[in-house]
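Researcher: Structure prediction, please.
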Amino acid sequence: MSDIIAYIGLGGNLGDRKNHIGKAVRSLRETPDVSVERVSTVVETKPLGDAEQLKYLNCVAEIRTSLTAAKLHQQIIRIENSLGRQRGEKWASRTIDLDLLLFGNEVINSDTLTIPHSQVHLRSFVLAGLCELNPKLLHPVLNETINTLAGRLNGCDFALRPDRPQLISIAGNIGAGKTTLTKILADAFKCRAIFEAYDTNPFLAKVYAGNHDLALDSQLYFLFTRLEQLSPASLEKGKPVVTDYLFQKEQIYAKLLLNAEQLALYQKFYSIVSPAVADPVLVIHLQNPPNQCLERIHKRSRPYEQRIESSFLEAVGAGYKELIANWMLSPVITLTDFDCLNQNAVDLLACRIEYYIHPPQADKPTKYL
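Model: Predicted structure follows.
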């Protein structure tokens, strides 16, 4: 076979971490039919999960090889064993860990090997190394650049957690298309959809009509309705569920609609409720210009929304940008001017979402290409 460019992640947190990585790179250089082209900067990272462990050192190596992916994987295991790797509990401390991240454009899902690495798109420390070596490198399943994937994580590291409700939250301005997209995705995943309680909020119409004395009542109604909808006990573990709102956006509207005295009281309730709400595993941020949102608002003719002005939508949009810029709870896929009526775009989005909530399964063909 002709030479393939592959990428290997290296890391460890026991013993002389830097020396172990150096030895692993030298072992790769000495492996027949393998040429180490470049190695990214070695960085220190916190351990994944909730385990109390020592920090890791990590880097990524770019290699050229004529070996098959399976044979290269065997060589990687040999190097790990030679450096004292002890295999046991997932995410346990280790002297050295070598992960085959990417192997050309190949996609492999077998009992012993998954390529691309099933969680490479969730690891900032891996994507940073890949970006240093080749930011335009394409993920062969998601068909997106490594740089794009890294931008969704905001410098954080995540893991697929099938033990949690697979909550997908759609965020965006009023009129951005959140409810429409929620219905479409719920149908695509054959899953439950959860919608904001606009129609049952007895205070909302009066607030939008100018009665700001009821603004706190309206915000508290939403707050406790969301607690009921999004408490972990009300969501099924491991199953996708789509909401047409992001719980944390409550702070945006509270700051815009409440006076100082109301906001202080609201924050007390929010601090009690927010820890009891399930966090999303993925956020879809619909980013649309305020004038476009305003046009949609007028078209759908909800009476209580017709007094909304462009300036208010601009303030809401700015609040979302700030929220997303500081978001650290999950990956975020930002979509600009997304057309929910474009079936090809919707299908592609659904496939990408699935890769963020379900790990690839052995011997099952991928449907993302």
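Model: The chain has two domains: 4-143, 166-357.
Researcher: Thanks, that helps.
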